[in-house]
Amino acid sequence: MKNVLVVGATGQIGSELTMLLRKHIPAGNIVAGYIKGAEPKGVLLESGPAELSDVTNAQQLAGIVEKYNIDTIYNLAAILSATAEAKPLLAWNIQMNGLINLLEIAREKNCAVFTPSSIGAFGPDTPHVNTPQDTIQRPKTMYGVTKVSCELLSDYYHIKYGVDTRSVRFPGLISNVTPPGGGTTDYAVDIYYAAVEGREFVCPIQNGTFMDMMYMPDALRAAISIMEADPTKLIHRNSFNIASMSFDPEIIYNEIKKVIPEFKMRYEFDPLRQAIADSWPDKMDDSCARAEWGWKPEYDLTSMTKDMIEKLSLRLKK
Ligand code: AKB
Fold first, then answer.
1. Is 141 a pocket residue for ligand 1 (Cβ < 6 Å)?
2. Mean pLDDT over residues 307-314, rounded?
């Protein structure tokens, strides 16, 4: 990995991954790919090249790959689960037509491609506890349909054309830098903002609903480690279960209260998000990722909560 295009570089994952890749590969060109209306700013703009890169515009993407001699593409353009239910055709267009554009370019230009999958690639028929790496995947959401299709299409391009496609199934990602938007697990980010800003939190997910979650630093390490893994050790490719913590709203609330005792939460569940959450795993088994490329998370709920509150307090209370 030397010259990298990050498609979706101003989003929740991309804004931090682009900066980390620039530190990790100082001699490379790490191109921040963005869309109109989501232009990079500040250090993201100043620390390296940035290019308009709409995932649905194959010609534009091919031009960037050519210009910077790109060898690896992080395909982070996505419409998250709740928004995808409201705009299913948009989700299909971004997730599927975007991916096929990138895979075709990767096939011609010999690039590796990382396209994240998600806990959303599972559905109500999947075993919810210790969800195996290889198991039934019949999601009932458009987000899930596209995520399973992305996994299959990525494997297809690897088997048929030898494109180096690899990916992970991300849990809900929690970060103190760029907030997510339109996801089902977003509550686990929003709750920290409410706590630090001294607001009551209205939780859209019901007590007792467990989902896999992960702190962004672990997710970023996973995204880089999988692309740097020894290919001869990989039995799987698209996509690996990765896990670090699983909790329900009450557990995260009580963890935050240990640091901010006056914090208050009440429930007002959102039927759409609740139905999506109910169809997802409670906790995935990530033993294949651990065995095949040495995946190991560093953060648990306690250490993440401490770090989130410290970082957000510094930023929001200025
Ligand atoms: C979402 O909630 O849609 C995402 C995801 C788990 O893929 N955060």
1. no
2. 97
